[in-house]
Amino acid sequence: MNKSILKTNTSRRNFLGGTAATVALTAGVGTPWIAQAASNVKIGLIHPATGWAAYPAAQLRYGAQMAIADINAAGGIKSMGGAQLEALLGDSQTKPEIGAAEVEKMNEAGVHAIQGCYQSAVGLAASAAAAKYNIPFSVDVGVSDKLVQRGLPNVFRMADGYGRIARDAATNLGEINRLAGSPAKTVIIVHEESEFGTGTAKLMTAALKEHSIEVIDTIKHANPTRNFDNVALRIKSAKPDIVMPINYPGEYVLLAKTLRQQRVDFMASYSVLGGGFNFKFVDDLPQIAENMIDVNHWYNPSSASGQAMRAKTEADGNYFTFEVYCAYMSVMFLADGFERAGSTDKEAVNAALAGSTIDVDFMPYGKTEMVNGQNMGSRAVAIQAQKGDVQIIAPSEYASAKAVFPRT
Q1: pLDDT band at 229; cut points 50, 70, 90
Q2: Pairing of strands 85-91, 21-25
Q3: In a domain? residue 406
Q4: Residue 173 sits in the same domain as residue 90
Q5: Mean pLDDT, rounded, of the chain
Q6: Is 231 helix (H, G, I), strand (E, B) or coil?
Q7: Looking at the structure, do residues 212 and 360 belong to the same domain, yes or no?
């Protein structure tokens, strides 16, 4: 797959209703699958389309369907005679058991690969269900390293996981703090309750110790949470130098607003995989967002294809969040597997994916190298809201600005 699949003139209408055939399924309702052309390559998209994570799910579907439309417009899977990609849509409703049930329904519908699932907990259940049928499974967003540590030959992840992200986040913070004269000594972590937040918080606590930064409290919250007043009071009383959110979009934004409203004073907000840190957050709450830092998936703003994808996304009236390009990359990866396998044979496709060297230049990545299903060329970056924009502040090879630390 090459950069030519990025078509800036592909309209939203075309890729949602034209070249990319789509079949929707609502879990538990019994909606029938609609028969499609046998020559199509069916990719199941499983996301929490309803429930508290509906916005990031919509962003993921947008990115995946953009990729499907672009690949189809560029000739489809050429080694299979131009076979077109077709999306089958499943709704996990944020629940692992429903995500697994969607896999069963998609298998019955003859799906050739599956992409999902935003939440690590849902991804673990859905990919295990897919493993029963050896269905190629590409993780678009899901940071738990358990996803690729179970020895399942059908599960792959192009983006990085929380193990290396935690180490990079601690290293970046240690360096930023050192350059500022090492003023930060203490951290409070506020994390969501599932595998994503709990696992990342545990890893960050250990990683920060190596940089002489102590986690003095860890606060867990439910999904969803509608009030952070007590959490703000707890942070205010403890007086940490740094507040470290690890949570999904709704709670990320609400926590940031609450800390501002309660006038909680701290040196910096340094989140890790903060689901709500994006261009929308910076636009909606510029005074709160200013100088906040996050370590997360991000695009490569210096690449022409990254710029083109952002321009198209914004022209379609959407924010260019990490869900969009992570989902796009995930579909590219699957399509490359079908292209090199020359068929939808599951073993052949899984073997092709395991040996992938696909070039994804719109992400700040090195060479793609799959080791036990994990792309070792991927990495997260540290980003900061500065003057109404988002800048990469680490690592240095992708940095577009210097860190503002402590915040002003």
Answers
A1: very high
A2: parallel
A3: no
A4: no
A5: 92
A6: helix
A7: no
- Integer Cα distance of 319 and 314 in angstroms: 6
- Number of structural domains the chain divides into: 2
Same domain, yes or no, for 174 and 265? yes
357 in any annotated domain = yes
pLDDT at 146 over 80: yes
Answer positive or negative: Cα dihedral of 256, 260, 263, 269.
Answer: positive
**104: in domain:** yes
Model confidence over 147-158: pLDDT tens digits?
Answer: 999 999 999 999
Q: From the CB of residue 304, how many other CB atoms can be counted at a distance below 10 Å?
A: 12
Closest CA to 122 of 189, 66, 52, 22: 52
**Which pairing describes strands 186-192 and 242-246: parallel, antiparallel, or unpaired?**
parallel
Are 203 and 333 part of one and the same domain?
Answer: no
Strand order in the sheet with 293-296: 214-221, 186-192, 242-246, 268-272, 293-296, 381-386, 389-394
In CATH, what number is assigned to the domain containing residue 233? Answer: 3.40.50.2300
Is the per-residue pLDDT at 181 higher than 90?
yes
The lowest-confidence range among 20-24, 70-74, 372-376 is 20-24
Same domain as 172, residue 141: no
Task: Supply the pLDDT for residue 39.
Answer: 83
Question: Which tens digit of pLDDT belongs to each residue from 11-42?
Answer: 333 333 333 445 444 333 333 333 334 489 99
Same domain, 134 and 147: yes
* Range of the structural domain that residue 19 is part of: 3-159+301-375
Q: Where are the alpha helices (DSSP H) in 117-191?
A: 120-131, 162-179
- Going by C-alpha positions, the residue among 388, 408, 392 that lies closest to residue 281 is 388
Q: What angle separates helix 195-209 from helix 162-179, to the nearest 10 degrees?
A: 40
Is the pLDDT at 359 greater than 80? The verdict is yes
pLDDT (0 to 100) of residue 27: 36
Q: Report which of 356, 364, 348 is spatially closest to residue 398, judged by C-alpha positions.
A: 364
pTM, rounded to two decimals: 0.90
Closest residue by Cα to residue 361 from 330, 396, 329, 397:
329
Instruction: Indicate whether 124 and 235 sit together in one domain.
Output: no
Same domain, 141 and 33: yes
3-state secondary structure 358-404: CCCCCCCCCCCCEECCEECCCCCEEEEEECCEEEEEECHHHCCCCCC
For the chain, the C-alpha Rg in angstroms (whole number) is 21
Residue 22 in any domain: the answer is yes
Q: What is the DSSP letter of 84?
A: P
Looking at the chain, the whole-number percentage of residues with pLDDT higher than 90 is 89
